[in-house]
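In the design runs reported in the main text, the only information available to the sequence generator was the tokenized backbone. The following block is the verbatim input for one such run; it is reproduced so that readers can re-run the procedure and compare outputs position by position.
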């Protein structure tokens, strides 16, 4: 894992598009979202993410903000032991996991505040992956002409997070894209579009809620800052 982090930062770290997040100490650190982080044991993560770890990146040129995926409630204690800087919930389906259920976000935010972790709720415009997982109809979530997305964004704002992530920009195979969409059909697939609305509907909703979030965040960001690293 150390080699992977080193490679990413050495190769891409100076590129202007390489994302860095500014902490309250003024450090601009790269932010790594680690999908399925719970598969790796906390002891292994701790070797990388704690100061006393055998291959620690802390306080080195390869330090960063490492965000773990929280699926089950019990994962939060493994995340603490691992030395992660925060959690994200990833999945666009409300109710699919403990982490992706809006009703649990306030509790997760309190937990993160208590242990000085960054809480990042993930929102999506809807979900349908039956073209690649025909058995997964129970996790389909209708977009309801944008209402599903706005409900998710509203729930995220109520948690007063430091960051909100969006799942996704262009994952068409899971029906969670927000990029522009026009009617499209292939020999075996019909891609969903946003009619009767215009192709940019979800980009416009994203802008609307981003502006709202920026204004609201300014009112509480002084009370809760992301951790110093």
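Verbatim output:
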């Amino acid at each position: 894992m150390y080699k992977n982090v080193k490679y990413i930062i050495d190769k891409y770290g100076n590129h202007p598009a390489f994302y860095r997040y500014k902490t309250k100490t003024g450090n601009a650190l790269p932010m790594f979202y680690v999908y399925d982080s719970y598969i790796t044991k906390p002891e292994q993560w701790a070797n990388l993410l704690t100061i006393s770890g055998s291959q620690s990146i802390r306080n080195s040129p390869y330090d960063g903000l490492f965000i773990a995926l929280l699926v089950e409630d019990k994962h939060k204690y493994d995340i603490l032991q691992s030395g992660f800087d925060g959690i994200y919930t990833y999945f666009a389906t409300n109710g699919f996991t403990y982490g992706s259920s809006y009703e649990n976000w306030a509790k997760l935010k309190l937990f993160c505040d208590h242990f000085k972790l960054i809480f990042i709720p993930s929102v999506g415009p809807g979900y349908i992956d039956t073209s690649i997982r025909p058995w997964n109809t129970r996790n389909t979530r209708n977009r309801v002409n944008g209402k599903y997305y706005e409900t998710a964004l509203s729930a995220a704002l109520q948690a007063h997070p430091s960051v909100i992530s969006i799942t996704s920009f262009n994952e068409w195979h899971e029906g969670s894209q927000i990029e522009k969409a026009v009617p499209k059909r292939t020999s075996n697939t019909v891609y969903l579009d946003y009619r009767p609305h215009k192709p940019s509907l979800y980009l416009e909703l994203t802008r609307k809620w981003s502006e709202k979030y920026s204004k609201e965040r300014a009112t509480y960001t002084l009370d809760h800052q992301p951790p110093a690293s």
